[in-house]
Design a protein that fits this description.
Elements: E1 5-14, E2 17-27, E3 32-37, H1 43-50, E4 58-63, H2 72-75, E5 78-81, H3 93-103, H4 109-118, H5 132-146, E6 150-154, H6 162-178, E7 182-187, H7 190-193, E8 199-204, E9 207-213, H8 214-220, E10 221-227, H9 228-235, E11 240-246, E12 249-255, H10 260-268, E13 272-275, H11 278-285
Parallel strand pairs: 3-7, 3-8, 5-6, 6-7
Antiparallel strand pairs: 1-2, 1-4, 8-9, 10-12, 10-13, 11-12
Bound molecules: adenosine-5'-triphosphate.
Domain ABC transporter: 5-230
Protein name: ABC transporter ATP-binding protein
GO molecular function: ATP binding; ATP hydrolysis activity
């Protein structure tokens, strides 16, 4: 089953402050969506609305055409995984997984046990006594093994070391391809996670500044390097994100359709056209103007 998420003119206000402002988008394919944004950009705010943990101040969220808030049928289809405070969690892993299995109909215990081994998680210790990274791995196991049609991971890698994060990413990719579902990953580890994303959403100060296919994003961005005057002439009508000058050499980051003819022209003018990464784009799209 493929779910459909419709977000329309969503705002979330705290007093006069807009944590989210007029955010609209649709997610309608079983893909991996990367939600990126700087600290305080509104990622957790948006995800908690998607998960019906809170209501928006304005605008609407619909999942499969229905408002999910206090709608048990829809909420069954949504799983919000975040780094919760486990300091009072005296239960052990086995018991926790058993509890999850009871209310997540697609939960696969065999797969969960496989992941527990993969992540090297102790089953005989109360959760609160696990290290931070291990607690995050527990969350990853729950999120993956539940196989919920809409699975949301809010910075779930927190505290995991690099090899553990790598296991998480590999398992996520593999399980998503075998059991396609909507997976939303919020992160600021962009350069490390970009290859996971089918689509990218960038939030900046509560506003959605980009929602594109990952491939499109990467092909639309380019760096143009060469003699200053030639670079200026070539990029004058383009959307410039960033400029670097070194002596008489200039490197300009542009974003927009660069036609084959344009690329050819660049070469004829002795300019070098290089790729930019999602991380570059993220940094320059969300730069403060202070
Ligand atoms: N209960 C609240 N009362 C007032 N302001 C809040 C509240 N919750 C969140 N905010 C503000 O809303 C903004 C967005 O917060 P949010 O947690 O959604 O950001 P984020 O993108 O998840 O950040 P991070 O990457 O640091 O986790 C922040 O400026 C935050 O201070």
């Amino acid at each position: 089953m493929t779910m459909q998420i419709d977000v329309k003119n969503l705002s979330l206000q705290f007093g006069n402050y807009y944590a989210l402002k007029d955010v609209s988008f649709q997610l309608s394919d079983n893909k991996i969506y990367g939600l990126i944004g700087r600290n305080g950009a509104g990622k957790t705010s948006l995800l908690s609305i998607l998960a019906s943990f809170r209501e928006p101040t304005n605008g609407t969220l619909k999942i499969n055409g229905e408002v999910p808030f206090e709608n048990a049928k829809i909420m069954q289809q949504v799983n919000f995984i975040f780094n919760k405070d486990n300091q009072d969690e005296t239960e052990k892993l086995e018991r926790i997984l058993g509890d999850v299995q009871r209310y997540r109909p697609n939960f696969d215990m065999e797969y969960a046990n496989y992941l527990v081994k993969k992540f090297n998680l102790p089953v005989d210790k109360p959760i609160r006594k696990l290290s931070k990274g291990m607690q995050s791995a527990v969350n990853a196991v729950i999120g993956l093994a539940s196989r919920t049609p809409i699975t949301i991971f809010d910075e779930v890698y927190n505290g995991m070391d690099a090899p553990t994060r790598e296991i998480f990413y590999q398992e996520l990719l593999e399980d998503q391809s075998e059991h396609p579902r909507i997976i939303i990953l919020s992160t600021h580890l962009v350069s490390e996670m970009d290859y996971l994303f089918d689509e990218v959403l960038i939030l900046n100060k509560g506003q959605l500044v980009l929602h594109e296919d990952y491939e499109t994003v990467v092909t639309k961005g380019a760096s143009i390097t060469g003699a200053s005057e030639a670079v200026d002439a070539f990029t004058q009508s383009m959307n410039i994100l960033n400029t670097k000058q070194l002596g008489n050499t200039k490197s300009v980051m542009v974003y927009g359709e660069l036609s084959d003819a344009n690329r050819k022209l660049a070469h004829q003018n002795g300019l070098e056209v290089g790729p930019i990464s999602l991380q570059d784009l993220f940094i320059h799209l969300t730069e403060g103007e202070e």
